[in-house]
Amino acid sequence: MRTLTTALCGALLASSAIGAPFLSLPIDCELGETCFLQNYVDTDPGPGTRDFTCGPLSYDGHKGTDFALPSIATMQAGVNVLASAGGVVVGTRDGMVDRAITNDTLASVEGRECGNGVAIDHGDGWVTQYCHMKQGSISVTKGQTVETGDTLGQVGLSGRTQFPHVHISVRHNGTVIDPFQPGANDTCGASDKTLWADPLAYSPGGLIALGFTTAIPSFDQVKSGQIAQTTLPPNAPALVLYAYGFGSRAGDRLDITINGPANRVVAQSVDLDKTQAQYFRAIGKRTPAGGWQPGTYTGTATLYRDQQPLDSQSLTLTVE
């Protein structure tokens, strides 16, 4: 049910901001399962970086919230971007190519960092903007009225981005508003009156995906989501397990293990020594004499922070 939320720019929440929309997810996915929150609004007014919890999941000057997909393959299959609230479309852009930005291509998106996108006016000075959408997918036009949950297009890789996601920014009278903490203050943590219709849990980092391969992959291969294998022959040249994660912090530890039908194949603890938006680590073993024993192999990765498990994933592979 739609109600009014309270939000005042530049002060603690104290009175009702007429017309402030409650927001639904801007992406058609299951948060924490088929998509994840990669970055939040940068709440540090200076050159530093902090998200609304005072954690590092942002970057300097970031003005929105990033809902990310686990792979390029998922993006290519098609995931819809949805209107977070009803309103009138006041701007669109389409036609920009989907490609991860590099230093060599950065100048090509100057002034168009949002990539393909849509802006919606919700009235009373409230506007949401949706960025980095897939080329050719924009399905609304300027002046069109949309309702909460209407499809605007699809998640893409256009503009200034290195991973497929939809960036949603919220503004009130031109001022950036963090939907997790709509009242400007210096405390760490979500406001008790966020703009989300259903409160969204904060994840300080975690695992995106695991995959079995026969060689150590490149990062681009991991991000593609197209190299993981579910079956291998006994004479496969090697057995490798990679773990793809986000939001690492210095001091984190990643335990990666491969267990075979009868015994452990390989295990390793990897120390993560710096804060990274995304990363991967891999372990493996060359084919033993006589080949791999037929049967089921289980790969497991567990991420630890402050000596406590933060996230864990497992998957299986069949040798036949």
Gist?
It comes from Shimia aestuarii. This protein has 320 residues and is mainly beta.
Overall description:
The chain has helices at residues 72-77, 219-224, and strands at 36-39, 65-68, 80-82, 87-93, 116-123, 126-133, 145-146, 151-154, 165-172, 175-177, 206-213, 231-232, 238-248, 252-259, 264-272, 276-286, 295-305, 308-319. With 320 residues, the chain is mostly beta strands. It folds into two domains: 1-203, Distorted Sandwich (Glucose Permease (Domain IIA)), CATH 2.70.70.10; 206-319, Immunoglobulin-like (Sandwich), CATH 2.60.40. The strands form four sheets. Strands 1, 2, 4, 5, 6, 7, 9 and 10 form an eight-stranded antiparallel beta sheet that branches. The chain has a five-stranded mixed beta sheet with strand order 12-18-17-14-15, with no helix packed on it. It has a three-stranded antiparallel beta sheet with strand order 11-13-16. Mean pLDDT is 92; it is low at 1-17.
**Number of helices, counting only DSSP H or I runs of 4 residues or more:** 2
Can you say what the CATH homologous superfamily of the largest domain is? Answer: Glucose Permease (Domain IIA)
The helix-and-strand class reads: mainly beta
Give the total of domains. Answer: 2
What's the helical proportion of residues?
under 10%
What string, H for helix and E for strand, traces the elements in order? EEHEEEEEEEEEHEEEEEEE
CATH fold-level name of the largest domain = Glucose Permease (Domain IIA)
The radius of gyration computed from the alpha-carbon positions, rounded to a whole number of angstroms, is 22 Å
Quaternary structure state of the chains depicted: single chain
CATH class of the largest domain: Mainly Beta
Q: Give the CATH architecture of the largest domain.
A: Distorted Sandwich
Instruction: Tell me, rounded to a whole number, the average pLDDT.
Output: 92
Percentage of residues in DSSP E strands: 35-45%
The N- to C-terminal Cα distance equals 53 Å
Tell how many strands the DSSP assignment holds.
Answer: 18
